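Input (structure):
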């Protein structure tokens, strides 16, 4: 991999100088390109604050050989802000970033060969009315951004990796769980039955790993607002037609772009019948879509070929 040009190096050095400030806790660099030689990386003054996020297996291995904290990102086409969101969540899931940390996030376009964007983020908090968390989708106070972020990150991994080399699709609902349970029925034995609530919360990395495994099962995951999984393997029986909510929304019918199938139709319909949001992973393409009120509010497509 080629090193960046002189302008990028000047930008990088300026960011390093900012990262040396005492009030900066972490410097998160999101890139698939070797930005510094091993010698330059060892000599970097804010090295103890550095975290890298990359979709490149080769770069990840090289960074870890140099004992630089690094996390793997699913190979998706992200806009800059989405790229930072996913990287922050990935780093937080590895306990590299803590609630309240002030993080400088450096990223760019494409595979980040061109570094052109710097974000200052108080992780887990709003800043100046603008947020780089899932709160930016205006989900409302009933949703915990950490829960939604963790589930989107899990969905991205399912879309990229599948299960044992095979492509897998899945559907997850979050919020308004009582109504979702009323509008669904169990297709299989619930694998989470009998576990305590503390043992089945999606904020636990082990439970997110379980979701990846159980994604091969038919049916949807139903997740409560606080992250507790109520069930897997649910058949959603939503009509996709809104009833009795005022003239503006009354009679709203689920409508999908051409080419999306039954899983996405169910994901859309349940968010019309209830106040939940849903996250659908396409089995054919690995694309992750988030639905609210029947509409797609976030769509992330893969940039790398999926396993067959």
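Output (sequence):
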């Amino acid at each position: 991999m080629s090193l960046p040009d002189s302008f990028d190096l000047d930008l990088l050095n300026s960011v390093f100088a900012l990262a040396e400030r005492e009030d900066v806790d972490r410097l998160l660099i999101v890139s698939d390109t070797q930005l510094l030689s091993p010698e330059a990386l060892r000599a970097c003054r804010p090295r103890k604050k550095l975290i890298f996020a990359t979709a490149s297996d080769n770069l990840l291995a090289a960074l870890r050989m140099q004992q630089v904290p690094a996390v793997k990102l699913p190979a998706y086409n992200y806009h800059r802000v989405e790229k930072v969101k996913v990287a922050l969540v990935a780093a937080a899931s590895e306990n590299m970033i803590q609630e309240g940390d002030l993080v400088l996030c450096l990223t760019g376009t494409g595979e980040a060969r061109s570094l052109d964007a710097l974000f200052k983020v108080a992780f887990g908090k709003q800043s100046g009315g603008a947020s780089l968390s899932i709160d930016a989708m205006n989900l409302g106070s009933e949703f915990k951004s950490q829960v939604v972020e963790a589930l989107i990150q899990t969905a991205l991994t399912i879309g990229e990796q599948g299960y044992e080399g095979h492509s897998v699709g899945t559907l997850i609902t979050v919020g308004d769980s009582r109504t979702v349970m009323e509008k669904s029925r169990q297709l299989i034995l619930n694998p989470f039955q009998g576990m305590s609530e503390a043992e089945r919360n999606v904020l636990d990395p082990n439970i997110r790993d379980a979701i990846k495994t159980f994604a091969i099962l038919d049916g949807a995951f139903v997740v409560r607002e606080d992250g507790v999984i109520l069930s897997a393997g649910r058949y959603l029986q939503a009509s996709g037609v809104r009833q009795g909510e005022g003239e503006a929304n009354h009679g709203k019918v689920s409508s999908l772009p051409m080419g999306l199938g039954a899983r996405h139709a169910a994901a859309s319909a349940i968010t019309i019948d209830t106040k939940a949001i849903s996250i659908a992973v396409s089995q054919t393409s690995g694309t992750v879509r988030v639905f609210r009120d029947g509409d797609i509010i976030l769509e992330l497509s893969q940039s790398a070929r999926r396993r067959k």
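Notes: The radius of gyration is 20 Å. The chain has eight helices and 13 strands.
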